[in-house]
Each structure stands twice: as structure tokens, then as C-alpha cells.
TrEMBL record:
UniProt-annotated binding residues for Zn(2+) 2: D67, H68, D211, H269
Full protein name: Ribonuclease Z
Subunit note: Homodimer.
CDD domains assigned: RNaseZ_ZiPD-like_MBL-fold
Domain Metallo-beta-lactamase: 21-218
Length: 317
């Protein structure tokens, strides 16, 4: 059974709290798993969330601050210990290759050969991720160190219209042939095209935007995303601190989502300076700029991808 969801493993920024672990996000996509920014404690959070090393097909790091990468040693060693056999792509900023090496080989263990390093550099780069059913694009953000955001996008397809197929007498192998070849001869002798029996189905898109100030790279990452996972480290009252340290406020995250036409917004990476009583304010400030679906990320929750159905695209007259 196909499943597309975000498993949230941690939601704190630089300092974990009693209720929030360091970062960690597993995007599950029809059996393919991308682990973003595994911070300290991610291996244990995976156990608590009911996911295993076998669920990880790629590890993507935005940058090498500790709250985004100190979980790498435990995750890599668990991949080796559990004898994961499939390739695991490791995507990280090329400029931090020395930090990756230290994390990758932090302690003695029976090493694994399945890790495939895919360093990224420059302003924008399409990343080869072994076995992925989608493309992965990295864009450089604006933080105090080199940092990248990621966009995941599957190819578009079509949705077949059963009433149109029935009207032309198409069923079984003829439908498969129509999908493969784009046209087929119906039982009555008429040539039927794929366009006559289907409507376009856009591929789903996910954007992952961590530590950054507002910058030009964010919009192409987030544009039209079904799911945007984005840092909202500060509240608006602390906007000056956000700018100083290279972060976003909740209101800015909401504005990004609105400008980019995002379908579901996931706020995360909250500063430890805020208590539980402050949490509703993050969603309120984001909602002041964005009228769509807002999710306040919490450790161990699962956030489903929005339905493929978009108003006005489910059927054709």
C-alpha cells in the first residue's frame, strides 16, 4: 500500500527541550524514505516513532550545525548493524566534507558499504539519489554557514477517466496500451487518444527549508509545493534576532507559503527560548500571512501529504 507522509522525529533548534528533540524528519514516499537533518538523538526517536534503518534510502543534510547532523553517527551505524542492503545516498554540502567524514566515521564499528556520498555545491544542483521515484534539487540558502534547501518533485502523469473509457468500450489490456502508446483503436474501429480519456495529474512536490534568512532561493524551492517543511525559529517580536542569526520568523514562514502557493505548511525548528504557552502564537503569526493549512510540528507526529485531488481536476466533462 502506498503511503506518503512526514514522520517528525524532532522539532527543536539549537538546544533540545523536555518536549522537543533536536531536528529529524523522515519523508516516507511509497516505500522510499528520505531522512532530513538527523540531529542528536535521532536513532532513539526513530525507535519511538516505529521506523527502522531499513526505511532510510537517503540522508539529506542542509548544513553542519550540530542540531542538524549530530545524529549521523548513530543512524549510519544502525544502518550497518541492521545490515541494510540497499543503497543509501548521503547528500550534504560539499564545503562540509570534512565534517561529514568525521561524523561518518565518528567511532569504531563494522562499517557498511551501502552509503553513497552525493555532495552538493554551487547555487543550485540536481542531486542523483539512488532509486528515488522523484527528482531532488538543492538550492543554496542564506545562513551563517553554507546551507541548502531541498525540493522533491515527482514527474507529472495522468488520471484515467472511467466514464470516458467505458464510453469508448476500452477495458483491460487496451487501457494499458493506451497509457503506454498514447492512442489505441477501440472495438468500434475509432482511434482514441489518451487525452480523450484522461486529465493531467501534476506530480507531488515537497520543499524542505531549514536555517536561512529570507532569500531568492526559497521561492523556487517552495513554489507550488504540496508540503512545505520550514523553520520558524522566532516569533515576530524577535525578528531582529532572526535576521542576525540567519533564521526565519513564523510570520515570514507564512508569507513564504502564501507567495509560493503552498498547500500545507509545516512549522518547525523552534527556539528553546519559547515555552509551551507561546506555541499557539507561531501558528497565529503564520496564519496572519497564509490562509492555508498550517501544522505545528511536534515530535513523533505524522503529517500526511495532501490528497492528490485538486479542485477542478478530478474529472472532465
Amino acid at each position: 500500500m502506498s503511503s506518503r507522509e512526514l514522520v517528525v522525529l524532532g522539532t527543536s533548534s539549537a538546544v533540545p527541550t523536555r518536549s522537543r528533540n533536536h531536528n529529524g524528519y523522515l519523508l516516507r514516499w511509497d516505500g522510499f524514505g528520505v531522512l532530513f537533518d538527523p540531529g542528536e538523538g535521532t536513532q532513539r526517536q526513530m525507535v519511538r516513532a516505529g521506523v527502522s534503518a531499513h526505511d532510510v534510502n537517503a540522508i539529506c543534510l542542509t548544513h553542519f550545525h550540530g542540531d542538524h547532523c549530530l545524529g549521523v553517527p548513530g543512524v549510519v551505524q544502525r544502518i550497518a548493524r541492521d545490515r541494510v542492503e540497499h543503497a543509501v545516498s548521503a547528500v550534504f554540502p560539499r564545503s562540509g566534507a570534512e565534517y561529514w567524514r568525521r561524523l561518518r566515521h565518528a567511532t569504531l564499528f563494522n562499517d557498511t558499504r551501502v552509503i553513497v556520498e552525493r555532495p552538493v555545491g554551487g547555487d543550485v544542483q540536481e542531486v542523483a539519489v539512488d532509486g528515488a521515484p522523484f527528482t531532488v534539487t538543492a538550492r543554496r540558502l542564506c545562513h551563517s554557514v553554507e546551507s541548502y534547501g531541498y525540493r522533491i518533485e515527482e514527474p507529472g502523469g495522468v488520471t484515467m477517466l472511467p466514464d470516458r473509457l467505458a464510453a469508448y468500450g476500452l477495458a483491460g489490456p487496451l487501457v494499458g496500451r493506451l497509457q503506454r502508446e498514447g492512442r489505441v483503436t477501440a472495438p468500434g474501429g475509432r482511434t482514441v487518444t489518451l487525452e480523450e480519456c484522461s486529465v493531467p495529474r501534476p506530480g507531488q512536490k515537497v520543499a524542505f527549508v531549514m536555517d536561512t534568512r529570507l532569500c531568492e532561493a526559497i521561492k523556487p524551492l517552495a513554489g507550488g509545493a504540496d508540503l512545505l517543511v520550514i523553520e520558524s525559529t522566532f516569533l515576530d517580536a524577535d525578528a531582529a534576532l532572526a535576521e542576525e542569526y540567519g533564521h526565519l520568523t513564523a510570520r515570514q514562514a507564512g508569507r513564504v507559503a502564501a507567495d509560493a502557493g503552498v498547500r500545507r505548511l509545516v512549522l518547525t525548528h523552534f527556539s528553546e527560548r519559547y515555552g509551551a504557552e507561546d506555541e499557539p502564537r507561531f501558528a497565529e503569526e503564520a496564519a496572519a500571512a497564509y490562509a492555508g493549512d498550517i501544522v505545528m510540528a511536534r515530535d513523533l507526529v505524522r503529517v500526511p501529504m495532501p490528497s492528490r485531488h485538486r479542485p477542478g481536476t478530478a474529472s472532465r466533462p
